[in-house]
């Protein structure tokens, strides 16, 4: 079964087209109008081994909030749709990623119960022109729409760029692990309930 999904979402604030393949090679074509977000999404695709194409036009003349959050929404929706009924996946994933002085941890459960636990502090309010508070908004939008439980923690780190990038890489590796087929599970749903 193909785990590739294309979605489009248009509101008065944003216009987003996205294609996600869970069984890709890490290729990314990202154009959100927000340079640092493009950088983070490219890193996420690369380290999750997802193929990801995103084109977003948003009300950047106001700020970056709507575009960042709405990209998280559409990516989450695509992730959930690409997984289908979640048969044969590992379900759980985790990663502990160092980046110079920074150490970030992510753990995910593809549970059908959306939740974000975010324990990440940034030493400064912006990276370039992007507000650092928007990373939490992105991951919350993703988790709620992907229907996953996601924990992201900064264990160490002072450089805001390193902290953000390590968080995205940790999330990528955790999602990659959780979404991978588990040969021992076969066609079963990895839950005692029989459904996720």
Largest sheet: 4 strands, mixed
Q: Helical element count?
A: 4
- Biggest sheet: strand arrangement: 1-2-4-3
The total beta strand count reads 10
Identify low-pLDDT runs: none
> How many structural domains?
1
Structural category is alpha+beta
Name its key features.
4-stranded mixed beta sheet; Ribosomal Protein S5, domain 2; 31% strand; 10 strands; 4 helices; 196 residues; 34% helix; globular; alpha+beta
What does this structure look like?
The chain is an alpha+beta fold and 196 residues long. It has one domain (4-179): Ribosomal Protein S5, domain 2 (2-Layer Sandwich), CATH 3.30.230. It has helices at residues 35-48, 65-83, 134-146, 160-179; strands spanning 4-10, 14-21, 28-31, 51-58, 92-99, 102-109, 115-119, 126-127, 130-131, 149-156. The protein has a 4-stranded mixed beta sheet, covered by helices on one side. It has a 4-stranded mixed beta sheet with strand order 5-6-10-7. A hairpin with a 2-residue loop joins strand 5 and strand 6 (102-109). The longest helix is centred in the last third of the chain and has 20 residues, at 160-179. The radius of gyration is 16 Å and the shape is globular. The mean pLDDT is 97.
Fold blueprint:
Layout: E1 4-10, E2 14-21, E3 28-31, H1 35-48, E4 51-58, H2 65-83, E5 92-99, E6 102-109, E7 115-119, E8 126-127, E9 130-131, H3 134-146, E10 149-156, H4 160-179
Parallel strand pairs: 3-4, 7-10
Antiparallel strand pairs: 1-2, 2-4, 5-6, 6-10, 8-9
Helix pairs in contact: 1-4, 2-3
């Amino acid at each position: 079964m193909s785990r590739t999904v294309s979605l489009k979402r248009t509101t008065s604030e944003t216009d987003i087209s996205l294609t996600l393949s869970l069984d890709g090679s890490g290729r990314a074509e990202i154009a959100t109008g927000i340079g640092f977000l493009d950088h983070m999404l490219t890193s996420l695709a690369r380290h999750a081994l997802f193929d990801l194409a995103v084109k977003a036009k948003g009300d950047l003349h106001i700020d970056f909030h709507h575009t960042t959050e709405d990209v998280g929404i559409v990516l989450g929706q695509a992730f959930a749709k690409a997984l289908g009924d979640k048969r044969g996946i590992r379900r759980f994933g985790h990663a502990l990623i160092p980046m110079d002085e920074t150490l970030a941890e992510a753990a995910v459960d593809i549970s059908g119960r959306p939740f974000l636990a975010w324990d990440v502090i940034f030493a400064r309010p912006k990276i370039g022109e992007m507000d650092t508070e928007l990373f939490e908004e992105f991951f919350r939008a993703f988790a709620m729409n992907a229907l996953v439980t996601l924990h992201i923690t900064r264990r160490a780190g002072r450089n805001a760029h390193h902290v953000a990038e390590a968080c995205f890489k940790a999330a990528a590796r955790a999602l990659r692990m959780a979404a991978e087929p588990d040969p021992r599970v076969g066609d079963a749903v990895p839950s005692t309930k029989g459904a996720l």
